[in-house]
Every structure is written in C-alpha cells, then in structure tokens.
Design brief:
Elements lengths: L4 H5 L2 E8 L1 H10 L11 H7 L33 E10 L7 E14 L11 E11 L5 E11 L25 E6 L4 H5 L12 H6 L9 H13 L3 E8 L8 E9 L2 E8 L5 E10 L8
Antiparallel strand pairs: 1-3, 2-5, 2-7, 3-4, 4-5, 6-8, 7-10, 8-9, 9-10
Protein name: MaoC/PaaZ C-terminal domain-containing protein
Pfam family, one: MFE-2_hydrat-2_N
Organism: Novosphingobium album (ex Liu et al. 2023)
Length: 291
C-alpha cells in the first residue's frame, strides 16, 4: 500500500502515561545532566537528586509520546525512512516530578516537497501536535509540535503551513559557547524515556535506513540543547534538525542573547555539520514544581 496522506491527516492518538521521580531522573540522565564532570554540580543535582527534584521542561517532549505511530501500516509509510525535521515546545506550567499525563496527538497538515527531475519524491513533512494535560487536575502542561520528514514521498499535493523554527540565528559572534559531550551509550539510556525506535539501538536497522551505526535520538539532542540554553526555566524552545548525531560525538551550542529570548545553534564538532539550526528559546524565573 502506498502513502495515504488523508489517513495521516485524520490521525488522532490518545496516550496516557504514569511516571514517577525515577523517570524524571532518568530523562535528565538521558540528556546528559549529572553525567561526567557535572555529577556534583548544584544546578545538575536539581534534576537528578530526589531530595530536591525538579523536572526538566524538555521532558514534555517524551511524556505520553506514541513512539513509532507513523509505522502503523494504515499510513503506508516506510518508518525506516522517517526522521525528525523540526521541534517546538511550549511549557504552560512547570512539569510535576510525578504524575499521570494524558496526551492527544493530531496532525495539523502535510507539506509536499514535490518530485525531483527523475520523478522520485523529495519528501513529505508531517506536522503533528500534542497537548499534554495532568490527568488528575486537568491542567494543560505543555504543547509539543513535531515535524516528521518522510523521505521518498512527494507529488501527492500538500498543505500550506508555516514552518517551525524559520528564524535565522544572528550574523554576529555568539555571546557564549557551551560544549556538550555525548556518551557512546547515550541512546541506550535515552530510549528508556519512551522513544523506542530501533534506529537508535539496532545496527541492522540503522544500516537499512542509511546510517553507518545507530544514531542519537533527535529528541535527545533537543533536550541537551534545551538544558544548555535555558536549564530548568524554559517556557519555549524551537529548532530545526539539520544533521544526525552519533552517540559519542561532541556538540557545541552557540547562544545569542536577544532581549527576553535566546537564539541558538548546535554544531557537531566531530562531523563539522550543524545538528540543530534556527533555534530560539524563551524562559522565566524558576517556579516551584509540584510533586
């Protein structure tokens, strides 16, 4: 069966997840907080020590996340050819350290990249949005937008949608640089927060998708950048995925102060390629979280 864009547009996926303080710490460790030299850093300990624990805002990207939902045969897509295209997070309330989350995923539209000169598809961009609520209180905690790039599709007619993270970073030198090392086992840890795509652990699956070895989750790179840019006080973060990262590679986050916002870009120092581009963030003073 071929690609069925109308079925993708009609998708509505409800997901619930109960999590506790251990999951909150596991997410932080999965994005490198408290690892290596930061193991005793007071700021890192806020997110990995249960005595005074605070959930990282970017954890919302993994909570009640229907991993591999586009792999359902009803959509007619080859899930091995799907990669992250862009990500946007809006945090409306501080995330609880432990809660049950109710999430509803819908599709806002699909952008058709058309056909190349040979008639092959240039790709399709599936724009999905999830609204996360605390199942007990009903509080709207976060809105997560994600663009999935479906390689090889195209020519079906798409929707006119505003892109995520279209703003370029400033042309001047960054105000600061943050080096972000990743560990060889980083993907093995991060996948336990909910993204179980075998692309990130199985060498054969990675090879079939065109990678020389399993790649780091895009959400893991996003979470690492979130911590570098705004720590535990983020309210918004957007970025475009530009190139994959392999576990063990070292990243460098360039940050520009822009009034009450920050622009950022993440460069892979091993490959020389930009991993996250067109990034921008907003933040607030730390608020008390609820357990």
């Amino acid at each position: 069966m071929g690609f069925a864009p109308d079925r993708v547009r009609a998708a509505r996926i409800e997901t619930r997840q109960a999590y506790d303080w251990r999951d909150t710490i596991l997410y932080a460790l999965g994005v490198g907080v408290g690892m290596g030299e930061s193991a005793t850093d007071p700021e890192a300990l806020r997110h990995v020590y249960e005595e005074r624990l605070e959930a990282l805002p970017a954890m919302a990207t993994t909570l009640a996340y229907p991993s591999l939902w586009l792999a359902d045969p009803v959509y007619g897509l080859d899930w091995r050819r799907i990669v992250n295209g862009a990500q946007a997070l809006a945090v409306h309330r501080p995330l609880p350290v432990a809660a049950t989350i109710a999430s509803v995923l819908t599709v806002e539209g699909i952008v058709d990249k058309g056909l190349d000169d040979s008639g092959a598809g240039r790709g399709a961009l599936v724009h999905a949005v999830r609204h996360l609520h605390d199942a007990a209180s009903g509080d709207h905690l976060a809105t997560v937008r994600q663009v999935f790039f479906c390689r090889g599709e195209g020519g079906f007619g798409g929707d006119d949608l505003a892109p995520i993270a279209a703003r370029p970073v400033p042309g001047r030198a960054p105000d600061r640089l943050v080096t972000i090392p990743t560990r060889r086992e980083a993907a093995l840890i991060f996948r336990l927060s909910g993204d179980l795509n075998p692309l990130h652990i199985d060498p054969q699956v990675a090879a079939a998708a065109g990678f020389r070895r399993p790649v780091l989750h895009g959400l893991a790179t996003f979470g690492r950048a979130a911590y570098a840019v705004g720590g535990g006080a983020l309210t918004r973060l957007e970025a475009r995925y530009s190139a994959p990262v392999l576990p063990g590679e070292t990243l460098r986050c360039a940050i520009w102060d822009q009034g009450d916002e920050r622009a950022f870009q993440v460069i892979n120092l091993d490959s020389g390629r930009i991993a996250l581009d067109n990034g921008w963030a907003a933040w607030r003073e730390r608020l008390e979280t609820r357990g």
